[in-house]
Amino acid sequence: MLSMIKANFQANNSARDKSSVGGFGSTQNQDLTEVNPSDHKTSDELKSEAEKPTPQTIQISARRLAELVHREGGLAGTDYAAIEGVEGIRAQQKAVRALRAETAYAAAEFYEEYSLNCTIFGKEAALEIRGRADLLLKFPDYWQVVEFKSFRGPKLKLAREGRAEHRAQALLYTAMLAQAENFSRPSYETLLIYVSVDEDDYLLIRFTNTAAELRDFLESTARSYLNQVANVIRWQERRDASLKAARFPYAQLRSGQTELMREVLACMRDKRTLFVEAPTGIGKTMATLYPSLKALAAGYIKRVFYATAMISTRDQAQTALQHLRENSLCLVRSIYLTAKEKICLQPNYYCEQRICPFAVNYYKNLPDALAELLNYENLDQTVIQAVADKHQLCPFELSLDAALYCDVIIGDYNHVFDPRIRLKRFFDDEEEAPIGILVDEAHNLAARGRQMFSATLTLSGLLKLRTLWQKEEYLPFTQAYQALKASLEAFIAIFESIERIFSQAEEPDIKTKLPRLGNSLCQSSLTEDWVLAGDFLALRKKPDRLEASLARLIRDLRQFFDEQWDFPGRQEFLQTFFDLLHFQRILSEYYNQAYITGARRLGDDCYLSLLCLDAAAFLSRSYYDKHPLVFFSATLNPQVYYEKLLYSKATVDPPERLRLPSPFPRENQLLLVESSLSLRYQDRAASLNAVRETIFRACAEKTGNYLIFLPSHAYLKQLVKNIQAYGRPEKTRIIAQRPGFNSQAKTAFLDSFKSYGEETLIGLAVLGGMFSEGIDLQGEQLSGVICVGVGLPGISPERQLLAEYSDSSLGSGFLFAYVFPAFQRIRQAAGRLIRSETDKGFVLLIDKRWGQEPYRGLFSAEKRPHFLEGPEDLTLCLQDFWQQNEN
């Protein structure tokens, strides 16, 4: 029996207590100042001094509580509820304005986003429920709680009573309000209002409950949840005890690890943003995970999310956690999130949730599956699929639900930042404790971020939809069919008008035709707000007229697919529908001065894109002042470049910064620059012979394995032909990367480096490609790396527009669009060489531009290269280096 109920009602939407951090099983009421990173002199002292109070307090939002306890049925539910983002906000605002205009509400006081808070005590834990009711209406003698949900499509598709979790959420708010008044009124009224996004329509559901009914509902909901998580609570108590007692899992700390761990712990405690450049060999994975788990035990964060772009680094995180379990006796439950298409058990029904047998009874079967998964500490793909198959559940959705009970989640950047894939259940609930986010290989996020917030539609995808008209079995000539046909043809006409511009691009009067095209995309007329370069067209204005046409097409597609939801090939058509939805969302929610509208002709196809030139504000919105975050990489330099691309708050709230030196002896690596050869595009043919001779000369002083990174596949092909024509040294084998290398070809290429000492191996690869990052060739497997060229990205209209934008907003367009990304490629390629304290070898950079600014100024003080004075100097330098490093 829940014997005690304590409520704290915040009538004026006051701010939540920022010092109360914790969450699902986290420690509450700690003096957070007790744990000071500067006090942690060694890893063994990375502990929290505070003791956990009894009973333990679990924080949860009313929305999450309603979902976990009251969800019913399968995954499909209805397509017409839970519209999010700007559209949902607009729908709610529209509904509030309508209520204010009603004479029945003239006497009411309106309180929007009304904060509510109550704590319910059970035997083993206290449940603190927080939430914000969309609207409270105060009449002279009673209150009315209003919860809004938005929907699309006909109102008849909605359940007359609403969705169970929506009813429960609304009733929880009313019960919390009633508790604040000590259940003093005989009855309370709740309104659940579904508001149409597309039309001026709504569904109003009214509940009237007695005070006793609301008390019982609040207590029974809390009791049900506490019963569900009783084992989890006991697990977390044991977990926290093990983490507080845990020692660093390795006998020796590497140089820089203690400082890194201090800063990470401080970041988690203070909910800050930290940029870390930590070279290879420091042990970044463990030095970020270990203090983050200490922060978890101290109650600073609710869980840890380890985000990275590469499978290899996700594997490293899993390995580090296993070492913590084995060497430090830590209890840590972790999950590895696998992409939906890779973990699906029913590819024939892929995401057809109305008919997939793993979706139709999802919430009925979920509790038993979760109970079984909680017996594991490492929830990988194999475990998730086995349990999902046993209980007939979608493995992807099961992994997300299981992650709610995990201490560490390992996933992709997309799970944190991408508006299409972002896991809102973890990152967007402001009523729950923060999540500690670790972003590994953070140098990759800048370009990935721009891609996440860009969107593209293709003419070929739209023409596939047109084939529906050619299939007699899909010709019912319903109203939905006729409406869709008209809206689709109108949208295709926009693409066809773009194609006509490309076909007339060489005509002398093209400049007079471009504004007319712009008028089909934009409400306002265009003058000089466009760029035409060959098969690329860009507009510097938001295509607001296109937005209206797109909205009509999406509306008609929704209705058509709802009527025709079981025809062959529907999944193929749905993909174009999803692309349209993403395009619409980018256009309505994100498009600003950092965007351009671009069109490109590629062969017979036409692409229309919303190109994001700067995603910093959108990325920052995902975490700033919500979650502590650590960006770390071996090549996060220059830091000002990455800060401007990943963090938009630097001018008002500078991030924390940490730059650590390499833990390896400097004498183990020789950095050389050959700056007499021009690798500019127009000079490459003339310098090709000299480049070949320089490569062979550098590899001649030691029989070993060498990686040569080249500007492009085309240049690699030219170099191979040159070698074939002029020959290669004896006992030298050459292998080359080819376009379209698959995983097997990549493995075979790398396997060649496992043999060494008998002959010289020269591997030719493309700079910035699959061999520039994420490979680990230690010891004698790699003796040298040669980078030919400075690594500049290819010149394109899109890149030029990025440079123009960077020049106006960041101060140096050429640096931000070309030079800094180029240097990143070089550093990543050079980083393949020294992977451990015993590795030795040389890096040779070949390009005349390395001796000129701004390239020469990119080298840090501790990594100043030796500029060669000729071929003989190269030979002498390498002879001396290898003599000094003989084993």
Q: From the helix content, strand content and strand pairing, which structural class follows?
A: alpha/beta
β-strand number: 27
> Low-confidence runs (pLDDT<50, min 5 residues)?
1-54, 78-82
Report the total helices.
28
Strand line-up across the major sheet: 11-10-12-9-13-19-8-20
Shape: globular
Report the helical percentage: 40-55%
TL;DR of this structure?
The chain has 887 residues and is an alpha/beta fold. The protein is built from 28 helices and 27 strands.
SSE map:
Elements lengths: L3 E4 L48 E6 H9 L14 H17 L7 E13 L3 E14 L4 E9 L12 H17 L6 E10 L5 E9 H18 L1 H16 L11 H14 L2 E5 L6 H15 L5 E4 L3 H17 L6 E3 L3 H4 L18 H12 L4 E2 L1 H11 L3 H9 L4 E4 L1 H5 L6 H4 L8 E4 L5 H8 L2 E4 H8 L12 H25 L6 H12 L8 E4 L2 E4 L4 H20 L6 H21 L4 E8 L2 E8 L3 H8 L5 E5 L5 H8 L9 E4 L9 E6 L9 H15 L6 E6 L2 H14 L5 E5 L6 H9 L8 E7 L17 E5 L8 H13 L3 H18 L10 E6 L19 E2 L3 H14 L3
Parallel strand pairs: 2-4, 5-6, 8-19, 8-20, 9-12, 9-13, 10-11, 10-12, 13-19, 21-26, 21-27, 22-24, 22-25, 23-24, 25-26
Antiparallel strand pairs: 1-3, 3-4, 4-5, 6-7, 14-18, 15-16, 16-17, 17-18
Detailed description of the structure:
This protein is α/β, with parallel strands linked by helices and 887 residues long. The chain is 41% helix and 18% strand. It has 28 helices and 27 strands. The strands form four sheets. An eight-stranded parallel beta sheet has the order 11-10-12-9-13-19-8-20, sandwiched between helices. Strands 1, 2, 3, 4, 5, 6 and 7 form a seven-stranded mixed beta sheet that branches. Strand 15 and strand 16 form a beta hairpin. Helix 3 packs across helix 4 and helix 17 packs antiparallel against helix 19. The N terminus is likely disordered.
